[in-house]
Amino acid sequence: MNESQAHIIDTVIMSNLDEWRPVIAMLVFNLISAVMTALVKMALQQGINTLVLITLRQLVATAFLAPIAYFKERSTRPKFTLEIFVYHFFSALFGAALPQYNTFYGLKFTTATFAITFANLAPVLTFLIAIVLRVESLNMKSKAGASKILGTLMSIAGVMLLSLYKDVTVTHPANGADALLSSSGHHHRTTTASSQGNIESKNWMLGTVALLANCLCFSFWLLLQTRLTKKYPALYSSTAIMFFVSILQAGALTVTTERHASVWIVTRKLEIVTILYSGIMASGVGYVIMTWCVEKRGPVFTAAFIPIIQMMKKDASSVAVCCPSSPINEKEVDEEADTDI
């Protein structure tokens, strides 16, 4: 084999690796997100304040990314203009502050499995918005175009079924309303159980609306990143700035709504681990991965990997439950298993 043939082989191998890198990157992101979802659900069950969790997570992410951005991109970082600041403001709003609040709010009233399953709507919304904004093309006469339309309709139908289905295995009444109804014929107990069931149903719908808002925010953020990465091609700096702005956004809302300083005190081991992991891995590493994939393959490609989190979450939850320091007892494990679809 001469040098020319060896060079051709090396070129082909590197080309194939370049094609697979975004795929591998998104699989890593999905694993990170699955673990984060399981940790956040447990931290919320322990009573950590949602806005405090978001603000501290962004603070950790900024502290993690800022030194990397400074040293790695100090000679290549573009000029920071007012236009770039506006882009970063909305990137922080749609990519960090709002979606995280909606996700955690949705997790509080639903389950981790439901939240991740509902996130399957994100690729559909991203695809539809991308078509409207002409970021993505669609030929309805081709087989590929027809498959996209069919897949979109099936995804929407599945999410609607998941949201409106009222069976106990999905809605997970925490207070045992059905058990009260079946084990007692007393009128006052029946009334109490009915009231509890109504509250559970209302909370479930509120959680569903929050998760839908999260999907919309995520879709808009992915599409916004396609422009931001072209106008400000500094991956680490852009992500660090986004999280710094989101600290101000989430922090302002937290100070406005939570007047007691005690909500900022985090002492439980699980809460500290959740903040550090979600800040460093889910935000710091995860958002860099997503932004890079959007730049390389586009928003629709990036969103298409979200459904894989559902499979990875099963293993992440199992590891969390098996951990000796996990706050989930055997009864809660059984209840969580009942909510899986």
From TrEMBL:
Cell compartments where the protein resides: Membrane
SUPFAM superfamilies cross-referenced by the UniProt entry: Multidrug resistance efflux transporter EmrE (SSF103481)
Record key words, sorted: Membrane, Transmembrane, Transmembrane helix
Gene Ontology CC terms: membrane
Membrane topology designation: Multi-pass membrane protein
Domain EamA: 23-163
Chief localization: membrane
Keyword Membrane carried by entry: yes
Keyword Ribosomal protein: no
Molecular-function annotations in GO: transmembrane transporter activity
Residue ranges crossing the lipid bilayer per the database entry: 23-44, 50-70, 82-101, 113-133, 145-165, 204-223, 235-255, 275-294
Family the UniProt entry places it in: Belongs to the drug/metabolite transporter (DMT) superfamily. Plant drug/metabolite exporter (P-DME) (TC 2.A.7.4) family.
Name used for this protein in its record: WAT1-related protein
Native organism: Eleusine coracana subsp. coracana
Gene that specifies this protein: gb05946
